[in-house]
TrEMBL record:
Keyword check for Coiled coil: yes
Provenance organism: Arenibacter certesii
GO MF terms, alphabetically ordered: DNA binding; transposase activity
Pfam families tied to this protein: HTH_Tnp_1 (PF01527)
Residue stretches in coiled coil: 63-90
Gene Ontology annotations of biological process type: DNA transposition
Protein name per UniProt: Transposase
Top-level taxon: Bacteria
InterPro entries: Homeodomain-like_sf, Transposase_8
Amino acid sequence: MSRVKRNYTVEFKQKAVELSYARGSVVERYRELDKPSSLLRRWRRESKDLGEISFPGKGNPKLTDEQREIAELKKKLRNAELERGILKKEKAIFS
């Protein structure tokens, strides 16, 4: 028997986190939302650690400005290495 992975909207996650901070204990919020306790705990941690960039949606990684810059530089390096390899092969062919 396989488990079905549920997808929650960004708005739902943000509202759940807000409610969990606004009212009483976290355990009560879990019961109100009818969600596993680990789920809301993880959402709260992500919201606290990442702030506005938490809950980006499918396929959008959670990156800080520095991480985004590093990823961009790695991509440029990879492209430069590919171009260099192609030029080396062309030089060997036409020499």
